[in-house]
Structure formats: structure tokens, C-alpha cells
Amino acid sequence: MAWILLVVAGLLEVGWAVGLKYTEGFTRPLPTVLTVASMVGSIGLLGLAARTLPIGTAYGVWVGIGAVGAAVLGIVLFKEPATLSRLVFLALMVVAIVGLKATSGH
What we know:
It is found in: Cell membrane. This is Multidrug transporter. This protein has 106 residues and is mainly α. It is 81% helix and 0% strand. Helix 1 packs parallel to helix 3 (55-78) and helix 3 (55-78) packs antiparallel against helix 4 (84-102). The protein is flat and about 45 Å long. The chain starts with a helix and ends with a helix.
């Protein structure tokens, strides 16, 4: 169950990271409310997952999901560059996330 909470927390982190772009400096009410709600939900679920999982693993996976998700959505939604080197490093981050899960013992 902790891993499910952690993955959802990571997805919410993607949501608030991308949501920051849509708030336009917190000047747009609806995107701001949704972004803040995603922040609270993400941190809350991370905290619940960290009750069971080692904090280094939980935090590393959470940050990794957020970073990879935000980078991929940046490419898709905002036309950020999708260079070969960028994609290779994103793939390495996915390998690190899977490695943390595989070696966590949970």
C-alpha cells in the first residue's frame, strides 16, 4: 500500500510542478487552487508512505517521478526540447527509480 501512495504522491507532484506554469505566478485563481491542492496532497501522501518506507527511498522515488513526469510533460505540453541527451538522462532517472524500488526491501 505504501508504494501505491508513493506513486500517487509522485503523480501529484507532477501535477503541481506543471500546474505552476498555468498559475502564471499565482495570478490565476483556478490553476492556483488546483496547484496548491496537488502540493498538499502530494506531501501528505509522501508522509503516509514514509511511515513504512525508508525516507531516502521514498523521497528519492517521489522526486524522481516528479522530475521525469514534469520533464516529459514539458516536452509534450510546452514544446521543450527533446534532445537525445535529455531523453537518455530521463531514461537513467527511470532506471534509478526502479532501482530504488528493487533494492528497498519493501
